[in-house]
Write a structure and sequence with these properties.
It is a single chain. By secondary structure, the protein is an alpha/beta fold. The protein has helices spanning 17-20, 31-44, 79-91, 110-117, 178-193, 234-249, 262-266, 289-303, 322-326, 329-339, 406-411, 416-429, 431-435; strands at 12-15, 48-51, 55-56, 68-72, 95-100, 129-130, 152-155, 160-163, 198-201, 252-255, 276-279, 309-312, 347-349, 437-441, 451-457, 462-468, 474-475, 484-489, 504-505, 510-515. It has an eight-stranded parallel β-sheet. β11, α8 and β12 form a beta-alpha-beta unit. It is globular. The two termini are 34 Å apart. The model has no long low-confidence stretch (mean pLDDT 95). The protein binds 1-deoxynojirimycin.
Amino acid sequence: MTNDGPPFGGVIYQVYPRSFRDGDGDGVGDLAGMRAGLDHLAWLGVDAVWSSPLYRSPMADFGYDIADHCDIDPVFGTLDDLDAFVADADARGLQVWLDFVPNHTSDRHRWFEAARSSTEDLHRDWYVWRDPAPDGGPPNNWVRHFADAPAWTLDERSGQYYLHHFLPEQPDVNWDTPALREAQLDVLRFWMDRGVRGFRADVVHLIGQDRSYPDDPPGVDRFDGRGDFHHHTSTKEHLRAIRRVLDERGAIIVGESYLEQPEVLLAHVGDDAQHLSFVFHLLGAPWDAAEWARRIMEVESVFEPAGAWPSWALGNHDRPRLATRLGSEARARVAATVQLTLRGVPCLFQGDELGLEDAIVPPDRVVDPGGRDGCRAPVPWTEDPDAGWSSSAWLPLPPDAATRSVAAQQADPASTANLYRRLLALRHAEPALVRGAQRILGGADGIPDGVLAVQRTDGVDELVTLAEMAGRGAVLDRRWASGWTVAIDTQSAGPREGTPFDGALDADTAIVLRRA
Ligand code: NOJ
């Protein structure tokens, strides 16, 4: 990969379509709602909109179980609605990216229905079938996601088990079967022909598999954290094939590779693999400046020399919301300021720009098999009691929906949404924040404990983000008390912004400095 980085240096915004905006009043978000929400995204200043799956699906995993890759589920609209969304986004300078789900399909996909119909069917090898273990049980000890249960289900008709890393309704496909691989590449071509400019690749680290299916080492009884050893080198060959198809049309791919070790993750990024990979190392990090610094350096010590760009994500539809995890909106603002000034391509999760917290979901309204309903609560648009949703919204609204709504926050210069907007504007105005070099500053630079300091410079401009994470405030030494202008202050609409920095940092705040 060249040191210029990938051909996309913008900011990605994730839409979870069921919860973004409802266009037809049935309580579930849809493409009409997504079109109506585009002005908010243009106002915010993001560059690409990635939508979680919109394809036909029985919704066992809310769209990550695809029954037809080349059609839109009626709950979201039609292919014409998708085309209109792409055109409207394009008119606002926004790229549309879709979710590519390469590792599995729905068990109701015609490929799987055919594969299951007979061991002789041409589609049989499009999935992973194995004979039972000698005791009649599953072929190995793998555990599936969302439950402490085997990753294999017995198909009574053939007497063989099929593999599913996720729900039994989500059988894994077999990328070593050439016809399956070509069919998947055709899916990418289909959407690129409709103007889609990029893809987020779901659990893409799983598509290359050790076909001997060895047992997991002892002591592993949960899916989480197993990514590194379900990583297989053949994934790289499949990524190359994907990349060749994308390069024909200049489309971008960002992978969801749940691989802990940056060295392993790096194998999935580069000129012959994906343009970008999500990096989740800050998503689960304790709120501690030294630990954030350590994690950023751990990733960058591997990525930066290789010319690879991390795509830092602080939230998504699978994890508790940023403000909920960190315990306050003030901290969430600090985190966003760090995220949006780090080297790489930040990915924002819808509603984090509003400082939303997870919804409280009573037991009788739980719908997700993976316990992720809270972060998937509808985005509040208006200050009305229903926040722009009908009374039958598929999930409860998040706390303080009216005051956190898009309408309320766009009108309030001190809101979190306006902070994100200023950060995004700064990122667009300062090339050093996009392609500049990065260094984590420390004690030798006059940075006190409890403060995370990130320096960005492109040889022309220099910016430094200071994030107070110890909750006690800090006063920096004399080196910092002159020669710097405050570009961003998380605390307010910015009476301090544009003024000289005096060296003082309040508790739970961040500022971005520009060398005067
Ligand atoms: C990761 C997705 O983000 C998650 O929502 C989904 O359940 C699994 N992959 C399976 O597709």
